[in-house]
Amino acid sequence: MVERGVWLTTCVLLGVVVGCAADTTEPRPKSITSKRTKSDAESGGAGSAAAAKPAANNGKYTADPQLHGTGGMPKPPAMDECGLKTRFPGDAYCILPPPPDQGFQLHIGPRDYNNPEAKYVLGAGQEITNDFQTVSGNDKPIHFYYRQFRMRPGAHHNIVSSTAGGGFGMGRRIGTSNHLAEDSPKDGIIAPENAGVGIAMAAKQTINVSLHSINTTDTPMLREVWINFWYRPDDEVTEEVEELFQVGDPGFAIQPREETVLGPYRCTIRGDGRMLWFYGHRHANNLRFSAWRVRGAERELFYEGLNWEEPIVLEYSSTVENTMPQREKGIEGGWSGVLDMNAGDVLEWECHVKNKTDQVLRFANETYTAEMCIMDAELVGANCQSSLFGR
Description:
The chain is mostly beta strands. It folds into 2 domains: 12-237, no CATH class; 242-384, Sandwich (Jelly Rolls), CATH 2.60.120. Helices cover 1% and strands 38% of the residues. It has one helix at residues 38-41, and strands at 12-13, 16-17, 66-67, 103-108, 121-122, 127-135, 142-151, 155-161, 173-177, 181-184, 189-190, 197-201, 206-214, 221-222, 225-232, 239-246, 259-270, 273-281, 286-295, 298-305, 313-315, 333-334, 339-341, 346-354, 374-380, 383-384. Strands 4, 7, 10, 12, 15, 16, 18, 21, 23 and 25 form a 10-stranded mixed sheet that branches.
């Protein structure tokens, strides 16, 4: 059963219609309210310079973000905070919102779990991608960085954009997740070099959440997403995040049973900075996604993913040690430590694809009968020059 997957672009991309429908979010079910108190928040609020401390509630860590120096302790991901007991799988993925003065939560889901609206019910064998629109919970301009993503089983990805559209050229992407439970940065640890990192958001910003879901079971599932955005103090933000999104060449056509490599595609770095994280998007016929930083004669592999169904998202910081990739042994991984980017560096990426179907694979949104080779990342101080086809 597919419970974890990859994210993909939606709506109209380069003339390809891939199944996007605008929608509106409903408020949280009335049975879910925040149980966090001021004393909970005081154990370490957003942007705090304190290391993680056990909360008073039986030694459990709070779900609040922390700034960690050397020796900072990772926190277990927040789970099962709402006490839900519905007939659908995934109740444990519900988490509570931040205290209002420290952040807000975007919630996509039904008003009534006993009688959910049709748009939130995913039928047996059904696959769908559509958009839900809402408004951010901040009543004044803010910065954020730490995000918590939770989705019920059946969710394949979500893409969060600051304007309607949810895809390439359709607004600024401010978050994406392809796992049912994921925190960004990893483990809620903000590395020392990223203490000044932030992402700006206007007050009451229109937000679009593109949700791709697939139900490979024989019973209905519920489509529901919880995303927490934690504020950063404006006077502490010295580095603005830039998003990177490159699709390669969407004009490919992979013949039935053909094995081929898409790419390598290329884009040139402008500015001096560093990459915060990287993710390579692909579908079920992908065998490998690889990405390199090319600097002069040096070509450094910084990402190699071998499992499309549970794809790795790699963070590059002083607090994260990634696995060294060994393709011949089936071990995926990438660069460890800060991944610096200099003006003139080139990013290269490619996808090894084997068409296991009896139809031509093209660039589209279907998990098993289409493919993509997209790189997605966040950086500070640097980005790739615009290159539609990565050449």
